[in-house]
Specification:
The complex is a heterodimer of chains A (754) and B (159). Chain A is of the alpha+beta class and 754 residues long. Helix content of chain A is 28%, strand content 24%. Chain B has two domains: 76 residues, Ubiquitin-like (UB roll); 69 residues, Orthogonal Bundle (DNA polymerase, domain 1). Chain B has a five-stranded mixed beta sheet, with helices on both faces. Classes of the chains: A alpha+beta (754), B alpha+beta (159). At the A-B interface, helix 1 and helix 19 of A face helix 2, helix 3, helix 4 and helix 5 of B.
Amino acid sequence: MAEAVDYKVIGTSPIRPDGVDKVTGRAQYGADLNLPNMIYGRVLRSPHAHARIKRIDTSRAEAMKGVYSVVSGKDFPEAEHGEIGGEGGGDISDLAKNIMARDKVLYHGHPVAAVAARSQRVAEEALAAIEVEYEVLTPVLDLDTAMASDAPLVDENCYTKNLPEKPDKPSNIAAVMQLGRGDVDQGFEQADVIVEGEYRIPAAHQGYIEPHACIANTNESGQSTVWCCTQGHFEFRAMTAKVLNMNVADLKFVASEIGGGFGGKTVVYLEPVAVLLSRKAHRPVKMMMTREEVFRATGPASGTHIKVKVGARKDGTITAATAWMAYEAGAFAGAPMGPGAMSVFAPYDLENFKVEAFDVLVNKPKVAAYRAPGAPQSMHAMECALDELARKLGMDPIDLRLKNAADEGTQAPYGPKFPAIGLKACLNAAKNHPNYTKPLPEGAGRGIAVGFWFNVGMQSSAEVHINENGTVTVVEGNPDIGGSRASMCLMAAETLGVPYEQVRAIIGDTESTGFSNVTGGSRTTFATGMAVVRACEDIIAQCRARAAATWGVDEDQVLWEDGQATPAPGVNADVKPLSLADIAANAAKTGGPLLGRASLNAQGAGASFSVNIADVQVDRETGKVDVLGFTAIQDAGRAIHKAYVEGQMQGGAAQGLGWALNEEYIYDANGVMQNAGFLDYRIPVASDLPMIDCEIVEVPNPSHPYGVRGVGETPIVAPLAATANAVRDAVGIRIHDLPLSPPRIVAAIDAAGS
Amino acid sequence: MSKVQVTTSINGEEMEFLCEPQQTLLEVLRETLSRTGTKEGCATGDCGACSVLVDDRLVCACLMLGVEAEGHEITTIEGIATDDGLHPLQQKFLEHAALQCGICTPGLIVAAKSLLEKHPDPDETTIRYWLAGNLCRCTGYDKIIRAVQDAAKELAHPA
């Protein structure tokens, strides 16, 4: 198991096998493929945030020269209700209506029709020729309005789920969730100190630099091949099949390289539309979103309104905690209020707590998973409240958290008992980190916060082929979004005992490898890695059997050491060890090619905890926040590729800092997003950030052969509160809402001064 | 619509193409000439994914018309490596794991090449401001800055 072992390649940082193609422009991303006879698809989108479609007339567009096909809601089959699955969640019927509106449009940018034409320009001219008559309805644009009893309804058939009885009238509250333990009233009575806070965070976009893109090529028998940028081509195939009422066997999905996703490329938008357009046009159809479309109609993460109350004794022991949290779902149910509710108190060992969460419809784009979906918002509230609690108690904020920290055996708020976890190790690492105690410049502030994510396992498949010279090809089904081919090659090399350079990993399409769930939930290195290790173990077993046959001994008399079959001590000492290359070269005579495989539904994804330290300087006149330093400390279980683990921590920190300081969806009164471009929706640029210091803590996950915990999502959780707590430290005022943009900070300073 | 004939040089190779007057250089590179190494992230000049050099000047290809390439020398990511192999920037991006998804990488390498031609020994702040027009959503820029610093060293003192 994963105790301190001297690994040969695990924990190093070699060059990724797909690297050269990505630094020379060869790698093919979603929009980079072109096919003979290909035409271009474009989507007509709603100019209203909420309206009934009275009439769509596409006849003029269809008659235009160079237009090959036009589709609208009536061309799609009626989709059945059913769970989408994966990380985003939601209903298939809703997904179908999100791809193409039927009777109502529910947000500005909602697709109402699509055309395929010989060029993008002709396609755009054809969109302009489509006539749509709308009956404009009042849009529901914020949580307060949406949750009011007299609110206009986004969906007239939405009855709140998870209540003891079906409510007698519809509302915008799609679902509620409650979680709790103990007696919070009694707990608050035992408290010496109580803090309360109310926190609002607007929606933020994943902000991947590559817009969604795909090509569909549908033939006359109805079979279709789709190339697209996706976090999970198997799930894209499943969703497309359900939305179009097709047989999955008639759909082949090929994942291109993917230019970022962060959860946002776990659901289909264009692909079913492209399949339909291609079916009608009898040609391959390429569709690419503009950046504006990406902002208006994909993602984002939920805007939230969260209240927390925490009580503690003088010694810092938390006696009770409550949270009330409302998450914007956008136009269709499925906000990540569940994970938000389950994560808010996850780092702490609490006797008494209660959480109430709401999934709320508003006339905005349907939210999608964004790195630890739900947790950054809820944990921001809790971690800010703990900062206030530490101040009231006069305690060090790390000590307060250590006092209450969950550990092995603690029953998590969401149910199970934690196995070995790294929270205390991370808190102690933060406390001992020189960045925690180094002096701050005059007027600067420092804040800390804890982050957490559950991580998931789910289904993965892997095959390992041994080539005739003993080199290794790993085939797996998870698009490589941040260096996972390198991690797979490292685990395969370590397991087989061969040099890393002799292993290559490829991402199979849906017809050439076994089913794998999305690259999401921080599951790939954990679950798909586990499948790769098992497939390598399958190879080793076959190699031992072949060596045993060659030597005329029993299989248990053959060991596998340093990439070769060796005889067990005491066995005929004359036989020479057989390397992987030796066995591969002789494969024809010993039973044919060496092919290992494994498929599994991985269990035991270990939770990952983090602690972040942020140092900021605030210009009290302009309200601008400069990030002076940022330290990310996180339990990776075992870092397979060290530099890419650091990369996840640094990238998540940057996204969290963006959310904390700048990023937000800004709407006008009609529900039209006012900043649908990278100029006005400002993600962090190089000159906004300092170097981001990383410390990888390794508390091995007992469920993984090398101790891996997922590392992709936890990094975005703590930066929001760490930054807000640092700003609080610097300016002496608690600003509850995000982002901590210059106008908000100036307003808070002015209000405090007057 | 009638097309315009344009004569230009792309990565040192003389080239002629026909383009519509309103087509951007980015569209021409990607669609007409199949140079898809130059990426589109926004098409509004905000993300830098389509950074190319026009006569050694750093330009967003989405903000320039194809017809404006007439008589100029264009360098794209496909023209950065040489017969001797990868450019030091490309090599250092790999060694420092300065790319995760890699979609911003071509633009960043082109921009960094332009930076190092003008400032062979840049400090961290200079690098950060020079690359501020190239958005990366994956890395937090830390490893990109280090890769550029290391490439600058390598170019100054080839190993």
